Amino acid sequence: MARPIALDLAPRDPRVELRRRLDEAPVEYAEALLDSYELLQQLHEHGVFDLLRGLLGASDKLVESAAGAAKAEDSVRAIRNAIILGKVLGQVNPDVLQCVATAAGETLGSYEKPVIEPPGLFSLLSQFRHQELRRSIALINRFLEVLGQQIKLRAHGK
To answer: Structural domain tally of the chain?
Structure first.
């Protein structure tokens, strides 16, 4: 009969193995390792690890709260609106949006409360001589026209 071969393995110490790998690591990694140690120490000093431990400990409660909030009708509507706004911003020509931002900054963005007296009827009519005003009014009219068409389509579609 065959006899079993005795296999006596020395207990393995993972720290010794890690220390050996660290000692054999190329010298070019030394600066990166030192930076990593410094970063870890700063994270520890600022309590980031404690915060992460707390988050992990309360993860079930956080997930429940987030899921409850996401199920709310207002949250669903807000997410849908955010997606639609993202699409709108993607379709707007950046040059036009820059013009809108500049115009808003120059007319509404002053540090002092703007004092704008309402113009008289003749003064208002004389402003229509300026091409810029007519161009802006045409843009606003086109926007309102398309908006009205979309509202009509949505009303008849439902």
So the answer is: 2
pLDDT digits (tens, 9 = 90+) for 97-147: 888 888 888 777 766 666 678 888 998 899 899 999 999 999 899 989 998
Exposure on the CB side of residue 35, measured as CA atoms within 13 A = 5
Asked if the structure places residue 103 within a domain, the reply is no
Identity of the residue numbered 107: T
The domain of 76 spans 29-91
Report CA-CA distances (Å) from 132 to 20, 25, 123, 138, 144: 75, 68, 16, 10, 18
**Cβ-proximal residues to 62 (8 Å cutoff; 6+ apart), any chain:** 55
Are residues 34 and 84 located together in one domain of the fold?
yes
Yes or no: say if 62 and 55 are a contact pair by the CB < 8 Å rule: yes
Instruction: Report pTM.
Output: 0.44
Q: Is residue 6 in some structural domain?
A: no
Q: How far is CA 83 from the centre of its chain?
A: 12
CB 114 within 8 A of CB 107: yes
